Every structure is written in structure tokens, then in C-alpha cells.
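Job type: complex structure
Entries:
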Amino acid sequence: MQLRPLILAALGVAALLVTACTGGSTPDPTSEGETPAPAAADTFRIGTDAAPATINPLMGHEAEGTTWFYESLVQLVGDELVPLVAAEMPQADDDATTWTVTLRTDVTFSDGTALDAGDVVATYERALDPAAASPWASELARLSEVAAPATDTVVFTLDAPDAFFGDRLTIGIIPSEVAEAEQGSPLTESSLNETPVGSGPYVLESWADRNDLVLQARDDWWGGEPEIRQIILTAVPDATQRAQMVIDGALDGTMIGPAQAAALLPPGERDGPVAEDEAVTVLVNETADARAVSLPMDHPFTADPLVRRALNFAVDREGIVEGVLDGYAIPVDNPFPHSVGDFAQPSLFAFDPDAAAALLDEAGWLAGEDGMRSKDGEQARLTLMYPSSDTGRRDQAQVIVDQFGDVGIDATAEGLSWDLIEPRMSTDALVFAGGTPGNPDGTAWNWMACELAGDGFNNPGHYCNEELDRALVEGRSTTDPDAQQAAYARANEIYADDPGFVFLNTVSRTYLLRADGWEGVEPHLEGHVHSVSWGPWWNIAEWTR
Amino acid sequence: MDPLRALRRLAGRLAAALLALAAVGVGVLVLADLSPRDPLASYLGSSYLSASADSRTEAARALGLDVAWWQAGLAWLQGLPQGDLGVSRVMGRPVGTVLAESLPWTLGLALPAFVLALAVSLAVVLRANLRPGGVFDRAVQVLTGVLAGLPAFLVALGVIALFAGAARLLGVPSLPASGAYSPGARASGLEAGDVALHGVIPLVAFTLSLVPSLVAHLQQGMASAMGSDSAQAARGLGVRERTVLTRVVLPQSALPLVGAATSVVASLVATSAIVEQIFGWPGVGAATIAAALESDLALLLATSLGTALVVIVAGWLGDAVARMVDPRVRRG
């Protein structure tokens, strides 16, 4: 047992008691050590709500591309993939079933060994190993084989075409020695959970108490010597505390809530310096993290496409963004919004209660004397489920309930845990979330493909439109950009007549930063997952001063 | 005492303790089994929502989440003789390591809070008994009543607000209210001053949460000493009430004090978890809460059985001390 903290804490407390008893007063708060010690000039301190769940890349650490300990073949920066350990962008064959990646040859792990094709193969095989229970396994469902024909070449062979497989090449590469030694055991027992060995710019110096994660810059990183030599991640559960610590100078950056950001800024501002201190700024990153109401197909009301279109017209998306999210979201109304980059398709549903009413009339759901609609004696009812732990989704659900009520629908919101939500998804609506930057296939396919209806949380509403399925398969089965564009344009039109969701918005993430002269901070489009290393400091190894 | 009788008594106590531990272990396993939270949800993270039903089943099997609760319990027990407490899924490290890291923090906060709370309570009760029904006594009754009714987290938030308010009035920065040390201090070397400053607010909140039930216990226990023959006799001789309290009542209060101390050990553990959680104090309590939320059986079994053991041993110690200080108990 480590006695040092115990002794120190006991000594400290004893000292306090002595001062309290002899001095008869509370300890003098102006004594030294009370003002937060300023960080060393080349240290950056980040406050998080909790310690990272894991630092093992195969367990989902930095699932959307690596920044600190590890490096992946490619990195997803905004809606664009860029090569990292790969020497150039991965090359797909014409039907996108074989992917060839050429590697850089100057990359070394922090233990000094070189990173080569064998390490890449071992990493992906470990991710597919059933005994490992890697969260990546389901993401790599289409991958059938990984091979290394040369020490700097890796070939991925897929079961089915996937023009967006490049998005899956974001796993941090681990040394083959570790992967092979731990073959057959679950990742929960991996040595990498405590001692990362990667090729990234930083190594772990200490992670005592699982509270304070301290990273030290490498001198032998192929990308050069990072000017920020030390990164400290500290878990501070309370968001108000975290914000205060940045303002007090005890932290350099942290993620805060949208309402907090709005409260710190001068009225009318969405980002920029906070009112209290010019040197502290609010930064906003947009995301591909969409919120959408999944509509249940085994429900007498929402089974009708006319009704689903009506619901899409009944929602005031701008109103939700301003009213509930303090302006920190971008309204979206289709499965191919701004966040899929080049493949974004035209908006489909403007707020139009009259159009909603007309469609509901056409579908036979007529308003009674009290304004509430019914058909053949059955009330137009809908329950909106949301995960009870997510207050953002709760707030949105409550506004939508009101807006549905305005067109005569008896809607209610209900907060539940995932296990209670799952069996009800084909008969009740659900405020769902997800999205991958730059990828028009991921969300659309996982949320609406006929074959995925009710498979886990995929396709929650049990939606099925075979025409849409075909358009999506066509889109990912070609690498020709024009053919891809045509496929997603058609998919968007099919969705317009037969929407399975009410898309609402992509939420923004808000950060507080004391840049202190550091340059190179770049906002970028984030994914659904928020991993701490993907804040404004995702490229911290390249900051200069 | 008859050695045979003592031995039988010891055996009985051990049997009762084992029974209690078994009950706690089974209780934890059954409750975790009934918990609606799927441990896979947090393990798989965002992949939980995109994972197919098949890959969920596969992951559950690989992690050993698909076995019955009693099988999981037996598997954990099998490691015990070798000192293997298993691996914590939530913390991503062996349970032994988690405990070695967090236990010192918990003891470092809970023990001073315990001693401080005892001292404060005793002082308060003595002072209140100086003039029963007086202003101080009634103020104590009202205050402890209110405090006892408040949940520990509200007390904690109140203490944070108090310190922040006081700091603003004095025009100085408030004391830290999160963590046990400044960011990064753990790696660069802990300093007692830094840790102590971080400990002030949690310690005050912790102590305040313990005081009400201690005061109630002591009040009850001292009532008899207050009215005891010796106290009455002293008063009759014209001894000042202050002297009666310190010379006559206080020595007779040793027993109630031990009783009160033993009685708060169980609530000490619960309060410790709440205080650690609120103040981001890296102790066992916070780890236990994380383990409970995600049905991390290895860590949860270790901490709950450990806690039960502490409470049982505290009871034994309490009895032993009581017997040492008061001969009447020995006879009975």
C-alpha cells in the first residue's frame, strides 16, 4: 500500500487542526500554496468531468483517430481523412473491397522499436479476436482479412464493398509483441490499460489514483519535438468548478456545457473572450453528432409515411436550437446534413405547421372539437423516449412534445434507461443520437437498413425502404465521386417521401480555453463520441509559441 | 474468565461475522444482477448503439458477463486464497492496485473527520449540558436537527458555498473544492500543504455530516451520568457545575462515547463515499460508486466485503474498549 498520500493527508490535516486550535481561526487563506500554482511554461492542464474510461486504443480510446499516445493509419480531421502512419491515403480498388495502405518507414514506438506492417496486422487481428471483446469488432464487421505483403504495405480485404472503410482505419496501432502475447485474453486484462506503448508524440508519465493523467512529450517522435512538453489531465466532476478553475488559472482548458458558455459570455455572443477575463475564451466545435427522433413503424399512427412527413413539418428546429440549446447546435432535417461534407444533400423540411396539418388531414387523422386528432376512434398518440441520463435530450423531447401538441398530437416524453428503451423501440419514438463526420453511409445505413431492423440499437424504429437500401449500397459500392453523389441525391429524395426519423440538429461542443500565447488552436468538426483528446487541443503536439 | 467460555464466545463471533459477510456478498451479487444497467453499455461506449445483437453476446461471453451471479461470485472467491481480488473492469487495473491507491486517501480524510467529529460533539454536548434548556442547548438541538435532516451532498454544497462566500467577503480566492491536490502534483511530488488545503472543505463537510448523530448519541448516553448519584452528591456539596461536568460526568461518559463512536462507523463509510464523489477525492468510496454504477463485480465485492469487515471489527473493538474502561461490562 502506498503510505505517502495517507501520511501527507494526515500530516496536513493535523497541521490544520493545530493552527485551528492554537490560532483559534481558520487557516489564513493568503498563505502560500493557496493561489493555484502556475503551470510550468510548457505544460498544458486540461480539466475533464471524469478520468478517461480507458487509454487502450483497442478498447475505444480515441476511437475517431489518435492524438496522444498512439497513431492510427489515418486521422479524421473534421470531415476529412488525412494520412498519419500511412504514407499516403489508402487506395481502394474499383468496387472498394480491397484497400491497400503504404506505411511511413520512420515511425517508432515509444519503446524504441520500429512500427511496420506486422504491427498493423496484429492490431486489427486483435480487434477482431472474439476473446478480446473489442468495441471495434462490430465496426469492423465488413473486414474479412488483413495481410502484410511487405514490411511497409498492408492490405485489407472486405466481405462487401465499402467506399468509406477508410473511416475504420483510425485504430491506434499497438506493437505486435503485445498483441500476440495477449492473444485470447480479454482486453480488460491488457497491459496497455496501464502502460501505453504507442508511436504518438506523448508517453504516459503517471496515472496514479486514476485522477491525474500526466503525459510527457517524446524526444524521438517522427513528427518533431512538441513544444508543449507536458499535458496534465485532471478529473473535476463538477462543470462549474472546472470553469472556475480555468478562470482562476488552475487549469488551461476544459469542456463546459452550452448554458455555462452562454452565461460566461457577454450577452449576444456565441464564442470569444468571457466577460470576466479577456484571456479566457469560449471555443465552439461543431459536430456530426445528430439528434433525431426515431419513428416507430409498428405504431398505428407513425406507420403512415404521410404522418411521418407531417411530424417533420411540425417541428420548429430553429426554435429548439435557440430555446433549449442556447444556440449551440445546427438545425438539420435529413440524414445527409452539413456534417457529411461533400455528400451533404438539400434540406427537406422547413417548419410549416399548416403543411403538417394538411398532411395529417390527408392521412385521415382529423382534429376533433378539442383540436386533438384521431382516426376511426383512435387518438393520435406518441411517446417520446429518451435516455434519462441525458438532460440535453430530455429538454429537446419536452419541446417537441409541445410542438406536436400544437398540431393536435397527444405526445408525452418519458426518460428511461437503455434496457427499458430497447424492447419498445418499434412501438415508441426515441430521441436518438449519432453520426460520423464526412461519412454519408454510416448513420443512414445503421439507422435505416432493412436488414438491421431491431438488431441491437441499429434501425431502432424497424424502418424499411428497399429503394433506399439500394441507393445506399450503390453509394458505398463505388469509388467514383459522381456516381456517389447521384446515389446520395437519390437516397435523400426517397427519404423525403418516406422519412423514418425527425432529424433535429447536430449539437455543438463548448470549451473554455486559456491559450496563454499558444498558437495553432484549430476548431474542427467532432464526431458523436467525445474523447477528451479531441477538444480544441487535438493538435496540441503542433502548437507553437 | 473461563477460557472455554471465552473460546466459545470467540467461535460464535467468528461464525456470526462469516455469516454477515456471506450475506453482504450474496446481496451485492443479487442486486448487481437485478440492476437494469447493462455493464456492456459503458464498456462498449458508443459502439454499444451500433453493435449487432450477435457481437453484444460475443463481448458479454468474452468478459464473463454472461454467467449467473453465483457463478461470478464463486469465480471471484476462488482467487481470494492467492490474494487475487480480480481485475476491475471500470478502473482498467487489478482491484489490489485500485485499493492500494485509493485506501490511503480515504483513511487520510475519514480518520481525521472521525476524530474531529468526536471532539466537536463531545465539546458541544458538555457545553450544552452546562445549562440544560439554555440558549446554547436549544440552539444545538435545532442545528443538529436540521443538519441530521439534510442529505450529505447538500451539506457539502453548503460548505462549498460558505467558503466561497467567505472568500469573496475577504477578497481572497476560495479554497480548492475538487481533488486532493493541484493538477499534476501527483506526478511532480505531493506536498503536505497542497494536500491539506485541498482537504479543508471536504473535511469540514465530512465532519459536519457526522456530528448530528454523534451529538444525539452522546446526549442520550450522558443523561444518566448527569443525573447519577455521584453527580448529584457533588452538586449537593456545592461543586460548580463546570467541575461536575469535567470531573464527574465526563469520566462516566466514556462508555457512551465509545458507543457513539462505534455507531457512526457504518455511516462513516457511506458518508465517505458521498463526500469523495462530490469533491473528486480519489478514495475507495468514489471507486465503489463507479463500480456499483457499472456492475463491476470484482471491485464492488472487494469494497463492500471490506467495508462490512471494517464495521464488524469496529464493533468488536468497541466492545473490547468498553470492557476496558468500564468494569461493569466485563461482569455482564
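Summary: Residues 70-199 of chain A form a domain with the Dipeptide-binding Protein; domain 1 fold (CATH 3.90.76.10). Confidence is low (pLDDT under 50) at residues 15-35 of chain A.
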